[in-house]
């Protein structure tokens, strides 16, 4: 099984169960040999020192070491956790079971982590967007993009789109939002964010309301932050023709219906943000083989998996005359059902 471990004050059993179920369908859509899992601790990681986070992680690992394992449950980083968290889990787990680098993914490269893992989710989003746009006869370099969220995923999406030649016209995060209809200088914006910790006061764009970003004039909207940001209050005002769901569940059911009636094409999260878990799978494979890949191979294989998955998703849509979201869930559920049937588990 595969899934992230999150440290967040709102973690509870219902959320973890729901996220594990979503991971089941996501890994099936990506066609990687995992079921879904999830874990978490209810805490506020920013209020804990590094030493406290380490002790918390090690005690947590002591409680779950017999539940996780190379061929049972392979954790990865999620909200509030990172490569260092995975390093602590690996070290603590190894005290019980011997050195086992494949027991976690998303760990530091020096401990067997994969090259390309840091950019994987964002890169996968761009590959997914390319697949959708190519199918529509369009190219990234000819379109404008608005990106909500400028953390790891959003910043990589912006950087890669900029490198391809696409025009990122608006970006937002919790610190503010900036826009430039002629296109933001993304390398300069990244440097500004690293130096100041915020998007405001960037000289290459105009300040805008963070709420305005979702309805900003653009061809492609990419939510990379929280769930439920597109809802019945703002969906009718969305100007984008395409939405690529880099965040988990950014579009609520009411918004989904409104946007579909407007003819907006939505690339669903269980496909669009599967780049992270796909490269986690590559990391697991490398650890088991004891042979690490060059970053070019990681990126090449990721593009192959994302492109193939989109083709399978579209075939499902054509077979059942449904939209992309229903096609993705149908693809995932069918694969799990087929595996269940082949193993003789059907009722």
Walkthrough of the structure:
- The protein has 347 residues and is of the alpha/beta class.
- The protein has 2 domains: 2-111, Rossmann fold (3-Layer(aba) Sandwich), CATH 3.40.50.10860; 114-347, NAD(P)-binding Rossmann-like Domain (Rossmann fold), CATH 3.40.50.
- Helix content is 46%, strand content 12%.
- It has 11 helices and 10 strands.
- The protein has helices at 13-30, 50-64, 83-97, 120-135, 152-164, 186-196, 253-261, 269-272, 275-289, 295-320, 324-342; strands spanning 2-7, 39-41, 74-77, 144-148, 167-173, 176-179, 206-208, 220-223, 242-244, 265-267.
- The strands form 2 sheets. It has a 7-stranded mixed sheet with strand order 7-6-5-4-8-9-10, with helices on both faces. The chain has a 3-stranded parallel sheet with strand order 2-1-3.
- α7 (253-261) links the parallel β9 (242-244) and β10.
- It is globular.
- 47% of the residues are buried.
- The model has no long low-confidence stretch (mean pLDDT 94).
What's the topology here?
Elements: E1 2-7, H1 13-30, E2 39-41, H2 50-64, E3 74-77, H3 83-97, H4 120-135, E4 144-148, H5 152-164, E5 167-173, E6 176-179, H6 186-196, E7 206-208, E8 220-223, E9 242-244, H7 253-261, E10 265-267, H8 269-272, H9 275-289, H10 295-320, H11 324-342
Parallel strand pairs: 1-2, 1-3, 4-5, 4-8, 8-9, 9-10
Antiparallel strand pairs: 5-6, 6-7
């Amino acid at each position: 099984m595969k899934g992230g471990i999150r440290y967040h004050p709102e973690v509870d059993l219902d959320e973890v169960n729901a996220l594990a179920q979503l991971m089941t369908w996501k890994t099936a859509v990506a066609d990687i040999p995992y079921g879904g899992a999830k874990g978490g601790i209810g805490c506020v990681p920013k209020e804990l020192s590094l030493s406290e986070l380490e002790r918390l992680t090690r005690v947590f690992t002591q409680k779950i070491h017999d539940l996780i394992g190379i061929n049972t449950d392979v954790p990865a980083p999620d909200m509030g956790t990172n490569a260092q968290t995975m390093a602590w889990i690996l070290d603590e787990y190894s005290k019980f079971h011997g050195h086992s680098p494949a027991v976690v993914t998303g760990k530091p490269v020096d401990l067997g982590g994969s090259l390309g893992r840091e950019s994987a989710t964002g890169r996968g989003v761009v590959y997914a967007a390319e697949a959708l746009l190519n199918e529509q006869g369009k190219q990234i370099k000819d379109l404008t993009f608005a990106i909500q969220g400028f953390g790891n995923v959003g910043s990589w999406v912006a950087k890669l789109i900029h490198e391809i030649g696409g025009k990122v016209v608006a970006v937002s995060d919790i610190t503010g939002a900036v826009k430039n209809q002629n296109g933001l200088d993304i390398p300069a914006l990244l440097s500004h964010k690293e130096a100041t910790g915020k998007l405001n006061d960037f000289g290459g764009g105009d300040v805008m309301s963070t709420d305005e970003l979702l309805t900003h004039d653009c061809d492609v909207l990419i939510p990379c932050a929280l769930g439920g940001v597109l809802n019945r209050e703002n969906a009718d005002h969305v100007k984008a023709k395409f939405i690529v769901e880099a965040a988990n569940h950014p579009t609520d059911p009411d918004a989904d219906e409104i946007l579909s009636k407007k003819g907006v094409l939505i690339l669903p999260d269980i496909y669009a943000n599967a780049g992270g878990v796909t490269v986690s799978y590559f990391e697991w494979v490398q650890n088991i083989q004891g042979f690490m890949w060059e970053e070019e191979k990681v990126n090449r294989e990721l593009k192959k998996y994302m492109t193939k998955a989109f083709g399978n998703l579209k075939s499902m849509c054509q077979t059942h005359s449904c939209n992309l979201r229903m096609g993705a869930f149908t693809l995932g559920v069918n694969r799990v059902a087929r595996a269940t049937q082949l193993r003789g588990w059907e009722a």
